[in-house]
Design goal:
The structure holds 2 protein chains of 2 kinds.
Chain A: E1 2-8, H1 19-42, E2 46-48, E3 51-53, H2 55-63, H3 67-71, H4 78-83, E4 92-93, E5 96-97, H5 100-120, H6 122-144, H7 159-172, E6 177-184, E7 187-188, E8 193-196, H8 197-216, H9 226-235, H10 245-252
Antiparallel strand pairs in A: 1-6, 2-3, 4-5, 6-7, 6-8
Helix pairs in contact in A: 1-2, 1-5, 5-6, 5-7, 6-7, 6-9, 7-8, 7-9, 8-9
Chain B: H1 8-20, H2 24-37, H3 42-51, H4 55-69, H5 73-85, H6 101-120, H7 123-136, H8 141-153, H9 157-169, H10 175-188, H11 194-199, H12 208-220, H13 224-237, H14 242-254, H15 258-271, H16 276-287, H17 294-297, H18 300-321, H19 330-351, H20 357-363, E1 364-365, E2 392-393, H21 395-416, H22 418-432, H23 438-450
The chains are: A alpha+beta, B mainly alpha.
Chain lengths: 257, 451
């Protein structure tokens, strides 16, 4: 059973529309539809010495965060660390395009991002999101780039940046409660549980540590980039550079945020 | 001579008689007693002016006359003529008439007994003794003050009011006595309660605490405008009094003028946040959206905090562009990172930190003046000059700085991503021609060899 976070229980304090969070979700969904639905089904395949390669697969190699490309300054190089933040793995559920990768990331972004956007203001939140994503991407390049096989595997997904959002949330709002619904397998149970953010996020972090350590030591290879998650989460410490001044003042004076 | 048993008219006649005989001291004693018994006795007042020894004492009496009988044309004429003849004279209280040593000793002993009874809780006994003193000397301030307290304890508020009036008519200029009289008049429903409060403005010993009390009294009885005027008078008296500023903030909050309330809360916290009132103001400010204290608004460090965020973004981009190697940054990367700091600082200054002391001191506009509310009901609200608000950069300066900062950031982005931009060209050309970028063929080879 996995407790899926769906919302932060405290009302957003000053603004009601988290424009950047919603725009990021919209861009991620749009990019996913383009690459994983349109290109996969309708994109012209590319010829390679080993046969045809789908346009969707090529898009992963070109726009995904490939450590080798960054290290050797090939292709989109540094840009790929940004473009990869908006790409997600393909998937289908009963003949309907559906990606758990995208769904999971976006629901985490929705649950934790709105309040953080409120704390930062839209543009500083966007900047923080990009910085957290780039730190996660850079860590992934450095760690995975050391192994000859992994360095050619494209890393995609917003999870590094979202882990940063979660880390910042833990620092700023540890006392908040998160509304979750239990997920048994892929079936959501319509019962809501309110869990303290500190418990939820520390539990989430604990799940990342061991696989990330194994990856760093080269003892195991996972399809999930736990190193990027861990680096992104600790990038949340930088939130103090992006949080609004009035909220920083509240934080400094120990007032309720 | 037993003054207390005589009517004001009898005292007036005795005073006139003494004045004709040249006994000014006896005349003054009788006439002063007459006006104390009936402050609206204009003839007695005019005779008392004649009995005064100095011009300063005469002016003092004339001003008292005006205060109690301001509408009487004889008094206005007398005052006008006096001021025309003696424009430079300052008023002075009537000199105490000399008492005999024996009489003084008797007064002192009686007063001591009365004070002891009051302290012991024997209010009735205290009133009786104070009364004995006042029979001999109706203007004895210590006896009046003590008697007033005893009568208040006994809940004889009507008598207390009369004694308070006598005390003030007798020349008591203690602002607390004026406020007590107003409170007693409000309780008993006798006399105009607000006249002594209005008279507070003319008292030399008035302090902000008195005006605050008066303001609360007005507020409790629904006179918002007068309450506010008192507070502003107190503010003029001491612009740094936290209690006054806090009271102003609270009254403006109640009146739903949040900008004015914020202005005063800010001023309270500017004085100190260590006092109880300062902490209370800070707590209120923290509940009000979004509040940034002045020391943060004008601080350069808080602006540089945001610049550091931009700097980190550009350093990361430069590192990724340089293949995650420091030596891969190259001169364009380093220049780009440097420009990002300058551009970021200009952009932050133009947007979120326009009140930094370093710029705003010589490029800034003074704080925005709070506008008068549109509601005509509130037309009496005084204008608040926000001269204590930190100066901010004008819109024009911010536009120029912001544009310059944005341009520098774009240039910085081009410089830090120079390797990626040149490498991207090859990829996009290949994809546009439906060809696999050549480096991907290389990767596939490596991949196949590895497997």
């Amino acid at each position: 059973m996995f407790p899926l976070p769906i919302a932060d229980t405290t009302r957003v304090r000053y603004r009601t529309v988290p424009w950047i969070t919603l725009t990021l979700i919209a861009i991620n969904v749009a990019v996913w539809f383009h690459t994983e639905v349109y290109l996969l089904n309708y994109g012209a395949p590319f010829g390679t010495p080993f046969g045809l390669m789908s346009a969707q697969r090529v898009s992963h190699l070109v726009y995904g965060n490939v450590p080798f490309a960054v290290q050797e300054q090939q292709g989109l190089a540094a840009f790929s660390a940004i473009t990869s933040m908006f790409m997600h793995a393909p998937g289908y559920m009963i003949c309907i395009p559906f990606s758990w990768h995208l769904f999971g990331n976006m629901i985490f972004l929705f649950a934790f991002g709105r309040r953080l956007e409120d704390a930062c203001g839209p543009w500083r939140f966007l900047l923080f999101y990009l910085v957290a994503g780039l730190i996660a991407g850079a860590a992934s390049v450095v760690i995975r780039g050391g192994t000859p096989f992994d360095r050619l595997i494209p890393g995609i997904g917003a999870s590094g940046a979202i882990a940063g959002v979660m880390g910042a949330f833990l620092i700023l709002f540890p006392g908040t409660r998160i509304t979750t619904i239990p997920l048994i397998g892929i079936i959501p149970i319509p019962i809501r549980f309110r869990i303290p953010a500190v418990l939820y996020l520390v539990w989430w972090l604990a799940q990342q540590v061991l696989p990330a350590m194994e990856t760093i030591q080269g003892e195991a290879s996972y399809t999930t980039d736990f190193v990027a998650h861990l680096a992104g989460f600790f990038a949340g410490l930088l939130i103090f550079l992006f949080v609004r001044k009035d909220l920083l003042y509240r934080y400094m004076t120990g007032a309720k945020l | 001579m037993a003054l207390a048993q005589e009517s004001p008219q009898a005292l007036y006649r005795a005073g006139r008689r003494a004045l004709k005989q040249g006994d000014r001291a006896d005349a003054r004693r009788n006439l002063a007693a007459a006006v104390h018994r009936d402050p609206h006795f204009v003839d007695a007042w005019i005779a008392l002016v004649r009995a005064c020894d100095t011009h300063a004492e005469q002016l003092y009496c004339l001003e008292k006359m005006q205060r109690f009988n301001g509408t009487d044309p004889r008094i206005q004429e007398a005052y006008r003529r006096f001021k025309a003849r003696h424009p430079a004279v300052e008023p002075a209280r009537l000199a105490e008439l000399p008492k005999s040593r024996r009489k003084q000793a008797r007064f002192d002993a009686l007063l001591q007994q009365a004070d002891d009874r009051l302290a012991a809780g024997d209010d009735r006994g205290a009133v009786r003794l104070y009364g004995q003193i006042l029979q001999q000397e109706p203007t004895h301030q210590a006896a009046l003050a003590g008697g007033l307290r005893a009568l208040s304890h006994l809940r004889r508020l009507d008598d207390a009011r009369r004694w308070a009036e006598r005390s003030i008519y007798a020349g008591n200029e203690d602002p607390s006595a004026y406020i007590s009289l107003a409170e007693l008049r409000l309780h008993t429903g006798e006399g105009d309660p607000w006249a002594p409060i209005q008279a507070l403005h003319d008292l030399p010993a008035v302090r902000t605490t008195h005006l605050l009390r008066a303001s609360r009294l007005y507020g409790q009885h629904g006179y918002a405008k007068e309450s506010l005027e008192m507070l502003h008078a107190a503010e003029n008296l001491d612009p740094q009094d936290q209690a006054v500023l806090m009271q102003l903030a609270e009254i403006y909050r109640e009146m739903r003028h949040p900008a004015r309330a914020l202005h005063y809360l800010q001023r309270v916290t500017d004085q100190s946040t260590r006092t109880e009132i300062g902490q209370a103001a800070e707590e209120v400010l923290l509940e009000v959206k979004p509040h940034i204290p002045r020391y943060i608004q004008v601080s350069m460090r808080f602006a540089l905090r945001e610049v550091l965020g931009i700097f980190i973004l550009f350093v990361l981009l430069a590192l990724l562009d340089g293949g995650m190697r420091l030596d891969g940054l190259g001169a364009p990367g380093l220049i780009g990172v440097g420009l990002s700091v300058i551009g970021g600082y200009l952009l932050v200054t133009a947007t979120s930190s326009p009140a930094q002391r370093i710029f705003a001191r010589w490029l800034g506009d003074p704080g925005v003046q709070l506008r008068q509310p549109d509601n005509p009901r509130d037309s009496y609200l005084p204008a608040i000059a926000a001269d204590d608000a930190p100066p901010q950069l004008s819109f024009e300066v911010r536009t120029v700085l912001g544009t310059l900062g944005a341009v520098l950031l774009v240039i910085a982005a081009i410089l830090v991503l120079h390797n990626s931009l040149s490498a991207m060209q090859e990829t996009l050309v290949a994809l546009n021609n439906s060809r696999l970028p050549p480096y991907i063929d290389n990767w596939l080879d490596q991949w196949a060899n590895h497997r």
